[in-house]
């Protein structure tokens, strides 16, 4: 269902934000960890402590330095600061922290990840892609700035992301920073967002899309960036290659669970709660996990992926508490 001109105008004026980590009732986030780590961890409190610094770093990351760049920077900031759950930056900081790394070390990578994610949302919403006019509770970038500027804003966010992480990461071995930049690049290319999106477009009009094809699409469109988010945090925090591999295994599974949950929410949640058009998958006859597996089996699959993800972090004990709680949040979320 598309936004009418009237509701679009109302959305524009009120600019309702999809609350980043909407303040759900506390018990929903106060996660009880596995018996191995019996500590009660308050995810809500944790997320709130990260949200302020992340929002500030994002806001400061784009700055128009002359009148000529005012429009492009405004368009970039419009989407970057439109709300959003900030999951990728948070898992990056949490992974860094798991290895005793400070937020300061991982913040430039966290910002870069959100820039890349925002770019992918701007491009995904374009008329030639998903053609949507609502994102994060606000009119999409091309609705406000036009398709031409929206494309360029996405491009600018993408190139700035690499510059941002390379220029601003301090106190970390440059080899580790280079590793992060390479991983970020890989996550956007044919083996990441772009490849996943092309396969998704190819499958749109296709009958009989298989579970394997669907999983390939979402591994590349969704899970890869989350995997790089966790791996980057771990690398910047000083993890060994074996520890990074364990983090990647965790993140691949939460990334896939994230998409299964997204498909479930598209069927079960409202446009208002989602901040984007609900029921879009069914309207466009898209192959989704609920369509292939049914709703209950999709919920079971999401839970199975999360449990498998959490098992990968057992070796880190209590230090993994934030990532374990975020894993649960990914399937329990309401938007
Ligand atoms: C231009 C090189 C290039 C690549 C872009 C358009 C595209 C290729 C890829 C689409 C990627 C995409 C939109 C995947 C969906 C991922 C997803 C589940 C998004 C929703 O993430 P949330 O729920 O959103 O974290 P918020 O708004 O909370 O940040």
Describe what this molecule looks like in 3D.
- It is built from 17 helices and four strands.
- The protein is an all-alpha fold.
- It has a single domain, classed as Farnesyl Diphosphate Synthase (Orthogonal Bundle).
- β1 and β2 (40-42) form a beta hairpin.
- The structure holds geranylgeranyl diphosphate.
Termini Cα gap = 18 Å
Count helical runs.
17
Helix-strand topology string? HHEEHHHHEEHHHHHHHHHHH
What form results from the Cα inertia axes? globular
Number of strands: 4
Query: Using only CA atoms, what is the Rg?
Result: 19 Å
CATH class: Mainly Alpha
Are there runs of 5+ residues with pLDDT below 50, and where? 1-39
- Order of neighbouring strands in the sheet with most strands: 1-2
> For this entry, what is the oligomeric state of its chains?
single chain
Report the CATH superfamily: Farnesyl Diphosphate Synthase
Mean pLDDT, to the nearest integer, reads 88
% residues in beta strands: under 5%
Helix/strand-derived category reads mainly alpha
Helix content: 55-70%
Domain count, please report it.
1
- CATH T-level fold name: Farnesyl Diphosphate Synthase
Ligand kinds: geranylgeranyl diphosphate
For the report, how would you describe the main beta sheet?
2 strands, antiparallel
Pick out its properties.
335 residues; mainly alpha; Farnesyl Diphosphate Synthase; two-stranded antiparallel ribbon; 17 helices; 68% helix; 3% strand; globular; disordered N terminus; binds geranylgeranyl diphosphate
């Amino acid at each position: 269902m598309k936004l009418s001109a009237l509701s679009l105008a109302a959305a524009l004026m009120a600019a309702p934000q999809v609350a980043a980590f909407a303040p759900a009732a506390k018990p929903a986030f106060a996660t009880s960890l596995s018996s191995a780590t019996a500590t009660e961890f308050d995810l809500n409190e944790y997320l709130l402590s990260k949200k302020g610094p992340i929002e500030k770093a994002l806001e400061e990351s784009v700055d128009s330095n002359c009148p000529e760049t005012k429009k492009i920077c405004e368009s970039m900031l419009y989407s970057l600061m439109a709300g959003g759950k900030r999951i990728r930056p948070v898992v990056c900081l949490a992974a860094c922290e798991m290895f005793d790394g400070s937020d300061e070390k991982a913040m430039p990578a966290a910002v870069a990840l959100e820039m890349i994610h925002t770019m992918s949302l701007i491009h995904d919403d374009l008329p030639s892609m998903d053609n949507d006019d609502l994102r994060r509770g606000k009119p999409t970038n091309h609705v406000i700035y036009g398709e031409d500027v929206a494309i360029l804003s996405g491009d600018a966010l993408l190139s700035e992301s690499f510059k941002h992480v390379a220029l601003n990461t301090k106190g970390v071995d440059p080899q580790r920073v280079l590793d992060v930049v390479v991983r970020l690049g890989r996550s956007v290319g044919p083996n990441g967002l772009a490849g996943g999106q092309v396969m998704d477009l190819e499958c749109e009009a296709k009958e009989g899309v298989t579970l394997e094809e669907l999983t390939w699409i979402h591994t590349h469109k969704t899970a890869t960036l989350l995997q790089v988010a966790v791996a980057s945090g771990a690398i910047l925090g000083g993890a060994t290659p074996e520890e990074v591999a364990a983090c990647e295994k965790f993140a691949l599974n939460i990334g896939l669970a994230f998409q299964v949950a997204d498909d479930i929410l598209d069927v079960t949640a409202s446009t208002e709660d989602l901040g984007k058009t609900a029921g879009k998958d069914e309207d466009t006859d898209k192959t989704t996990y609920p369509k292939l597996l049914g709703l209950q089996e999709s919920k079971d699959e999401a839970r199975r992926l999360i449990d498998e993800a959490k098992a990968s972090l057992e070796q880190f004990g209590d230090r993994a508490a934030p990532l374990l709680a975020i894993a649960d949040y990914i399937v329990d979320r309401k938007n």
